[in-house]
Each structure stands twice: as structure tokens, then as C-alpha cells.
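User:
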Amino acid sequence: MILLAWLACATPAPTVVGVASIQTTRCAACGGTCREDTAPALSRQHRSEDLDYALSPPCGGDHDPCWAAWGVHEEPVRPESWVHNLEHGGIVLLHTPGLPADERALLVSFADSMPPGRVVVAPWDGEMDLEGAQAAAVAWEHRLMLGCVDLAAITDFYTRWSGRAPEDTLSAPSAGCMDSGGGG
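Assistant: Predicted structure:
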């Protein structure tokens, strides 16, 4: 009994509880499903350990003190790092590792056309569950799950949610984070 009480106190509460609203439409680019949802972040503390997020991909909550480097990544980036980018008003574009090259090129082109310090593009690791989506756009407390790369939907999402986070700033992660490997 005492052990159970200790475990209950030692296990941190989730920092995002779950989806608060869902809107589903057809992706104009492919006719697949585009689903946008919202989930309130209950906490945004800096924590260095690996975290278990209630949502996959996460759209807020506790995160690593070091951000991910802005721009395009060839390898998956720790969610704990890019959630910090979200807290600063960034948009993270995730895609399946097997996304066709032409669709990945659309994501890269989109990121390159945006102001510096606003977009991260990365494949997600095999442990993330995007519920059948091929790509996702993620902002602080908002997610857009895409059946295909739909640039119109991504542009609309970016316009509505970029720069709308608790600590909006266009600054880059600190050099110390980048040197330690924690940010990218």
C-alpha cells in the first residue's frame, strides 16, 4: 500500500492531457484525411530526461532545455527538443521515413520559403504513432495530421499558429545546446 502511494507521487502528471477538439476534412492534394486537433499544455518545464507524452506527436508540455536546430533534418529529432521549438512559436513538420521523395521535397521547399527560425522538418521515429498519417504539422497546442503533403493545409496551419506560443521569439538555440548534441 505504501509502495503504491509512493509510485503515485513519484510519477509526474502528464503535461498534455489529451485532445480537446478535433476537426476532420479532406486533404485537397490527395483526397485523404486531414485532421486538426487541439490539446492544452498543462506544463512547460525544462526537463533533460526522456519524456512520455500523452499524444504522439506531442504538441506541447515539458521539454528539453535545448531546442532542435531550425531547418531540415535527415534523421529523427527527439520530441523533447522540438517541443521546445514549439514553445517559441515554431512549426514542426514531421513525415514518415518512407514518404515519397516528391512529397518530402514539398515539405523542404515550404520550410525554405519561410522566415528563418520558424520551421523544423524531420522524419519521425518508428515509435511515434501518427494514426495512419503520412505527415504532420505541429504547433504549440495544435496538430494537423495529413494523409498526404497538402501544402494548402500546411500553409493555412502555419499562418494561423506560427508565432502563437508562450515564448514567441525568432532566436536560435544556444550554441552550448547545439555543441552538446541535445538540440539537433
